[in-house]
UniProtKB/TrEMBL annotation:
Zn(2+) binds at residues 407, 410, 431. Keywords: DNA damage, DNA repair, DNA replication, Ligase, Magnesium, Manganese, Metal-binding, NAD, Zinc. NCBIfam families: dnlj, PRK07956.1. HAMAP family: DNA_ligase_A. Transmembrane segments: none annotated. This is DNA ligase. It catalyses: NAD(+) + (deoxyribonucleotide)n-3'-hydroxyl + 5'-phospho-(deoxyribonucleotide)m = (deoxyribonucleotide)n+m + AMP + beta-nicotinamide D-nucleotide. NAD(+) binds at residues 32-36, 81-82, 110, 133, 170, 289, 313. Its cofactor is Mg(2+); Mn(2+). One of its GO terms (cellular component) is cytosol. The lineage of its organism: Bacteria, Pseudomonadati, Pseudomonadota, Gammaproteobacteria, Alteromonadales. It is an enzyme of class 6 (ligase). Belongs to the NAD-dependent DNA ligase family. LigA subfamily. The keyword DNA damage applies.
Length: 668
């Protein structure tokens, strides 16, 4: 029993120390997986021997029983708010009031965290209680929830701390945790949070502390409150007291700095403002405090704010405005994106008149209509977005946002497959908005493989209006190509020859080059081998397409939509008229498909066969050539320097042959 009690005590101490290394010192000493193993061992022991559970056990951070309501707590010392400065003149006036009364001062500058202010009391080094700010005099008892926040020590570190220490700080939700939380909320079809501040406040005020524990909240201490029973004198500067808190194991922002001159204060403000979007947490300004504690006492308080501190606010990142209209833009891959046209509003340091609405699912989630009053958010250089509507301000004439049925650019049908969030233009070969991507794909190595037709060449051809569709490539002259940058006649002539050479291809490559959604190399080959001709594929029904190997409902709909667009058919006809051709496909005799239904994998370097040729020949015998080994793999061909795929095949007992054996099968 003694050994169990000792192990529990050692595990508790070790895990608490690792929390301080991670959250306070910013220098973790073990991997997360090892931390999790130690925690799991501690929980198992505490469940088996609850009499040995330590009062500062880190296992308390998982949350306890839900509360019926929050109790009220009277603060030992009022928690005051801060006066605000919005312009430099506001801070200049603040500084003048300070210096007029106490002379020259040194300031401490720190980020103004956008979260929830809390008070945490430690008695004899142990966390005793925690409360929200409330009205400044009375707050809510959130002790059980605060215990779940890993960056807050349950026991102070070291020795020499007073009998009673009240710590004040901000609970916040890091940006990454906020994004992850909203993704989980969306997945569960539950309400999302507008911003990290709301998420932090909502998480900290949960009656069920297990919910709080799941929300990955953070904490930074920013001041000492009441201190009783000091064993040694406390530091007489604000910065010194923050340093003392850090020694005791409480996290303090690394951005806190002493500024001994006004120009340094202004420089600090500008630096933090510039780096605002790079910080791991949201801030809405800078807090500037007189460093000398005695001067703070001399300055005193006014109303509910100290005279010795001020919040120098940043331009707001959220504002309200009116959604006046919605336009639809077509992206380079055909995605139809709704763009909100707003009544101009100043937010995040700029005037915003447009914001993204992403897609139809996001519009439905927000419940937004044209005419609504909406909350716009712009953080750093992020594209402004609508994060919520103000429902009570909705006018009677508010109207639904209706997606177009045809592309705003080329009038081809707009396609939205059930289960997909994004609607897309189906006129991929013709649509001006998709032109560059369509031609880059058409000329790529696995498609028509036009040697020398790189991305920059394609972009110049389109920008100079020499090409409007893939068919136009085949009417280019060398003299026209010399209009491109760094393209002399010799290079231009060589490119024309490559274009003409690419006219002779295969039906599978041609189908792949068209850029039909979800139709990759393997599907294109299956379509070609199954139907045998382009004309049959163009007129195939959904049921016909579903009969092709690896073609499911979604792919079949994409293919059907593509060939229903007259614009796409016009481009295909022009390609055929320009001389694009391929050898006829002889329908394979079923008796010749010796590998039909089998899955093969190629790995390593083949010395006598090109990898693509080997793949094509295997497919011609009916095999499916996969990129990874599984229990369903029938055979693995291992060339030279075969690696993990060979090891996986041996582990699963899959048949393995070498290149010579493959050649024998193909020749046989």
């Amino acid at each position: 029993m003694q050994s169990i009690q000792t192990e529990i005590a050692e595990l508790s101490s070790t895990l608490n120390q690792h929390n301080i290394h991670y959250y306070v010192d910013d220098a973790p000493t073990i991997p997360d997986a090892e931390y999790d193993r130690l925690m799991q061992r501690l929980i198992e022991l505490e469940q088996a021997y609850p009499q040995f559970k330590m009062p500062d056990s880190p296992s308390q951070r998982v949350g306890g029983l839900a509360l019926a309501k929050f109790d009220q707590i009277m603060h030992l010392k009022p928690m005051l708010s801060l006066d605000n400065a919005f312009e430099q003149t506001d801070f200049d006036n603040f500084n003048k009031r300070i210096t007029d009364k106490v002379g020259g001062v040194e300031y401490v500058c720190e980020p103004k965290l956008d979260g929830l202010a809390v008070s945490i009391t430690y008695r004899n080094g142990m966390l005793e209680r925690a409360a929200t700010r409330g009205d400044g005099s009375v707050g809510e008892d959130i002790t059980e929830n605060v215990r779940t926040i890993k960056s807050i020590p349950l026991k102070l570190r070291g020795e020499g701390y007073p009998e009673l220490v009240e710590v004040r700080g901000e609970v916040f939700m890091p940006k990454a945790a906020f994004d992850a939380l909203n993704q989980r909320q969306i997945a569960k079809d539950e309400k999302v949070f507008v911003n990290p501040r709301n998420a932090a406040a909502g998480s900290l005020r949960q009656l069920d502390s297990k919910i709080t524990a799941s929300r990955a909240l953070g904490f930074y201490a920013y001041a000492l409150g009441v201190v009783e029973g000091e064993s040694q004198p406390m530091a007489q500067t604000h910065f010194g007291q923050l340093s003392q808190l850090k020694i005791w194991g409480l996290p303090v922002s690394q951005e806190v700095k002493i500024c001994d001159a006004l120009d340094k204060v202004y420089a600090y403000y500008q630096d933090i403002l510039t780096r605002r979007s790079e910080l791991a947490y949201e801030i809405d300004g800078v807090v500037i405090k007189v460093n000398d504690i005695q001067k703070q006492l001399n300055l005193g308080f006014v109303a509910k704010a100290p005279r010795w501190a001020i919040a120098y606010k940043f331009p707001a990142q959220e504002e309200m405005t009116i959604l006046e209209a919605v336009d639809f833009q077509v992206g380079r891959t055909g995605a139809i994106t709704p763009v909100a046209r707003l009544q101009p509003v100043f937010v995040g340091g700029v005037t915003v008149s447009n914001a993204t609405l992403h897609n139809a699912d996001e519009i439905a989630r927000l419940g937004v209509k044209v005419g609504d009053t909406v909350i716009i958010r712009r953080a750093g250089d992020v594209i402004p977005q609508i994060v919520a509507i103000v429902a009570e301000k909705r006018p009677d004439n508010a109207s639904d946002i209706v997606f177009p049925e045809s592309c705003p650019v080329c009038q081809s049908d707009v396609e939205r497959i059930e289960g997909e969030a994004v609607a897309r233009c189906s006129g991929g070969l013709f649509c001006e908005a998709q032109r560059k991507e369509a031609i880059k794909h058409f000329a790529s190595r696995k498609a028509l493989n036009i040697d020398g037709m790189g991305d920059k060449v394609v972009e110049q051809l389109i920008d100079k209006e020499l090409v409007a569709s893939p068919a136009d490539l085949f009417s280019l002259s060398a003299s026209a190509i010399t209009m491109l940058d760094r393209m002399a006649m010799k290079s231009a002539t060589k490119l024309v020859a490559a274009i003409n050479h690419a006219k002779t291809t295969t039906l599978a490559r041609f189908l792949y080059s068209l850029g039909i959604r979800e139709v990759g190399e393997a599907t294109a080959a299956n379509l070609a081998n199954h139907f045998g001709s382009l004309e049959v594929i163009r007129t195939a029904s959904i049921d016909d397409l579903l009969a092709v190997e690896d073609v499911g409902d979604v792919v079949a709909q994409h293919i059907k939509h593509f060939f229903e667009q007259s614009h796409n058919l016009e481009v295909i006809d022009k390609l055929l008229a320009s001389g694009v051709n391929w050898p006829a496909i002889e329908q394979a005799d079923e008796s010749q498909l010796s590998l039909k239904g089998q899955t093969w994998v190629l790995t390593g370097t083949l010395t006598q066969l090109n990898r693509n040729d080997a793949k094509a020949q295997l497919q011609a015998l009916g095999a499916k050539v996969a990129g990874s080994v599984s229990k369903n793999t029938d055979c693995v061909v291992a060339g030279e320097a075969a690696g993990s795929k060979l090891a996986k095949a041996q582990e699963l007992g899959v048949k393995v042959i070498d290149e010579q054996a493959l050649l024998a099968i193909l020749q046989g």
